[in-house]
Amino acid sequence: MKALFESTEFTLLLVFGSYLFGQWVFKKTRIGLLHPLIISIAIIIAFLKISGISYETFEYGSRFVSFMLGPSVVALGYVLYEQMEYLKGNVISILTSIFIGSVVGIISVIILAKITGADQIIIHSLEPKSVTTPIAMSIAQQSGGNVSLTAVIVLFCGIFGSIVGPPILRLLGIQSSVAKGLAMGASAHGVGTAKAMEMGVIEGALSGLAIGLMGVMTALLIPIVHRLLS
Q: Which regions span the lipid bilayer (predicted)?
């Protein structure tokens, strides 16, 4: 039986099945804490604990899902290409928005961490919280942070942003599809982009653009901030 559980086919069934179940629960309840990702993560962790299957085995079995991250990014690029007209005349405002978002994301973490007495490892782990997971982990590793902690925080920020982002945008009366897309991508990266796609094609395209720009901007700004504060 354990051999079956460790097979690639069963691992993929577990990943997709738990997420689809999470989607069903979320649609039925509409409770933010029952986000599909939270439910699927809980199910997978519980299953691995009960079955005694190591994370390394699960990671190998789910490698197809990891591989699909690449094509999904390309797909976002194609969606952006289709909405290229919305970039014309907005380049300066888009770059300015991403720059400010990146600066606020980094500085806010440093200030809160200093106030709470967190050490440098925690600070370096949290600085790239608004960047998509692969880039955030690379930034944290180069800065001397805890990569595992960074991955967890990035996921949490993505889920939290996808839940509270749309209500906040409505509360602030933001109507621009470009602004909403940039806000979701810059604050909640991949999970936020998935939510932005539900809001509209333009929102999804600009959110995908924000992911890439935030990654580049944050990677460039963090070393500069370190020099200024050292």
A: 7-26, 32-52, 64-81, 93-113, 147-169, 205-225
